[in-house]
Amino acid sequence: MSTAQHAARRTARQATGHAAHRTAHHAATRTARVTAALGAAALLLTGCGVLDGPDRLSADCTVVVDGSGSGADSENGFRAKEKLKATVPGFLADQKCRYVSYAPITAASTASSCQVPRMDLDPDDDQRSDRKSLWEQTRVLAEAGAEKMLDCARRRQPGSDVLGGLERAAKVPRDGDGTYHVLVISDFDQSDPDFRLSRFELETPAQRDEAVAALVAVRGLPELPDTTVHRVGFAMRGGRTTPERVEQMSQFWQQVLEKEVKVGVDDGYGA
How far apart are CA 71 and CA 91, in angstroms? Predict the structure, then answer.
């Protein structure tokens, strides 16, 4: 083999070696980049998990309580406080209530001086990782707030201006997301100085129309968009209401709430 041929083969081997080196270098570089990208993604996902934690509470809710005599804690009443204790914690949990406000039902609900501060059940400044334990604690406090409102409503101007109680609920701040949930613990027997439902016959549509018009004339209609009203104690009155009157009251309030005020009605929390 000539000297020129040896030189050519040497050059070819060197070129092949350099190419292989470059290929290995590029492969290593790509591997490093992919590894770094995956590592960054893993860190990002881990970080998001820490920041997000469990699902946060988000709904606006109000508890409206009836301070009238028909809610007495005896066989002659529908036991408002007993129903409050049995219903409020589950309601707050089911509806994922974050902000809880309170409103009274008295003889003049809109003008009542009863006030209980709104509560944030999932405050941002609480940094504990187990937020469920936080919610359990704040719901206990929220139930106590509802009892405080009920006690005040019973002491001051006891009566049953149900529509006025909903008007109070319509005026509270709404900072959460989605449907506004209003729990009303009342027999819904509207009874105030200007309107007594017991004085109206409700058997026929014409009679119900007359009663609805009379109520709206003196109380107006609360503005409650995107709202569900959850009723507890409806038409009980200590067990003294006949089945026929219960059905008539149901149709009357269906017309008031669903057709006039335009809210959803939910009796899922029972009597």
Answer: 19
Give counts: helices (H), strands (E), the chain.
6, 8
Asked whether 149 and 104 are in contact (CB, 8 A), the reply is: yes
- Spatial distance between the Cα atoms of 230 and 63, rounded to a whole number of angstroms: 10
Per residue in 135-162, pLDDT tens?
999 999 999 999 999 999 999 888 899 9
Q: For the chain, percent helix, then strand, then coil, each to nearest 5?
A: 55, 15, 30
This prediction's pTM: 0.79
Instruction: Decide: 237 and 70 in contact? Cβ < 8 Å.
Output: yes
- Do the Cβ atoms of 159 and 107 come closer than 8 Å? yes
Q: Which backbone phi and psi does 152 adopt, to 5 degrees?
A: -65, -45
Print burial letters for 93-131: b (CB count within 10 Å at least 16), e (below 16): eebbbbbbbbbbbbbbbbebebebebbbbbeeeeeeeeb
The residues facing 191 across adjacent strands are: 160, 196
DSSP H helical ranges for the chain: 3-52, 80-94, 131-155, 162-170, 205-219, 243-254
